[in-house]
């Protein structure tokens, strides 16, 4: 088996993505968790580039690595925190987490080892942004619109919760 540059790039990006996810679960400071999440998002964007989905890679960088992460940091900075520290996780929890990650990786490997999609015409490199738009606004228009309604409901819920917290803070003062 020869190791091509594309395989090594994928392997390194996948390792960074998995390490970012594991660090996100194990770190204790929220800002450090967000930085680990950014590493995961950027490595996933790199995997999109390897798959010739440059549009998705740019959207991944702009939306997730940029906007979502900035919103998380603003949310962290603008909210009050009760400084109740949780006990440190024991070594048993870390071992179980590691075994869970290995088990998940093994299950994914077994699931895709002999996976055969048959002969699918390879048109990924041709007009992939146009193909995404056509599929999104024709075949998947209902899930697309339901997602927008769900995000609107989450935004309204966040505003209501923030307003309740603001009213409680005004009563205490």
UniProtKB/TrEMBL annotation:
<dbReference type="GO" id="GO:0048038">
    <property type="term" value="F:quinone binding"/>
</dbReference>
<dbReference type="GO" id="GO:0016491">
    <property type="term" value="F:oxidoreductase activity"/>
</dbReference>
<comment type="similarity">
    <text>Belongs to the complex I subunit 6 family.</text>
</comment>
<dbReference type="GO" id="GO:0008137">
    <property type="term" value="F:NADH dehydrogenase (ubiquinone) activity"/>
</dbReference>
<keyword id="KW-0520">NAD</keyword>
<keyword id="KW-0812">Transmembrane</keyword>
<feature type="transmembrane region" description="Helical">
    <location>
        <begin position="57"/>
        <end position="79"/>
    </location>
</feature>
<keyword id="KW-0560">Oxidoreductase</keyword>
<comment type="function">
    <text>NDH-1 shuttles electrons from NADH, via FMN and iron-sulfur (Fe-S) centers, to quinones in the respiratory chain. Couples the redox reaction to proton translocation (for every two electrons transferred, four hydrogen ions are translocated across the cytoplasmic membrane), and thus conserves the redox energy in a proton gradient.</text>
</comment>
<dbReference type="InterPro" id="IPR042106">
    <property type="entry name" value="Nuo/plastoQ_OxRdtase_6_NuoJ"/>
</dbReference>
<feature type="transmembrane region" description="Helical">
    <location>
        <begin position="34"/>
        <end position="51"/>
    </location>
</feature>
<feature type="transmembrane region" description="Helical">
    <location>
        <begin position="91"/>
        <end position="112"/>
    </location>
</feature>
<dbReference type="InterPro" id="IPR001457">
    <property type="entry name" value="NADH_UbQ/plastoQ_OxRdtase_su6"/>
</dbReference>
<protein>
    <recommendedName>
        <fullName>NADH-quinone oxidoreductase subunit J</fullName>
        <ecNumber>7.1.1.-</ecNumber>
    </recommendedName>
</protein>
<keyword id="KW-0472">Membrane</keyword>
<keyword id="KW-1003">Cell membrane</keyword>
<keyword id="KW-0874">Quinone</keyword>
<dbReference type="Pfam" id="PF00499">
    <property type="entry name" value="Oxidored_q3"/>
</dbReference>
<keyword id="KW-1133">Transmembrane helix</keyword>
<feature type="transmembrane region" description="Helical">
    <location>
        <begin position="140"/>
        <end position="162"/>
    </location>
</feature>
<feature type="transmembrane region" description="Helical">
    <location>
        <begin position="6"/>
        <end position="27"/>
    </location>
</feature>
<dbReference type="GO" id="GO:0005886">
    <property type="term" value="C:plasma membrane"/>
</dbReference>
């Amino acid at each position: 088996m020869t190791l091509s540059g594309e395989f090594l790039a994928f392997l390194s990006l996948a390792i960074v993505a998995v390490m970012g996810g594991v660090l996100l679960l194990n770190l204790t400071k929220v800002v450090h968790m967000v930085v680990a999440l950014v590493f995961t998002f950027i490595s996933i964007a790199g995997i999109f580039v390897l798959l010739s989905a440059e549009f998705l890679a740019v959207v991944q960088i702009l939306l997730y690595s940029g906007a979502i992460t900035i919103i998380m940091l603003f949310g962290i900075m603008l909210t009050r925190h009760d400084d109740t520290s949780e006990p440190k996780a024991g070594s048993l929890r870390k071992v179980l987490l590691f075994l869970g990650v290995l088990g998940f990786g093994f299950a994914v490997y077994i699931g895709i080892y002999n996976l055969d999609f048959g002969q699918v015409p390879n048109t990924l490199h041709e007009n992939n942004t146009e193909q995404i738009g056509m599929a999104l606004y024709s075949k998947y228009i209902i899930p697309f619109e339901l997602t927008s309604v769900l995000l609107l409901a989450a935004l309204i819920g966040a505003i209501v919760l923030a307003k309740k917290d603001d009213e409680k803070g005004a009563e205490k003062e």
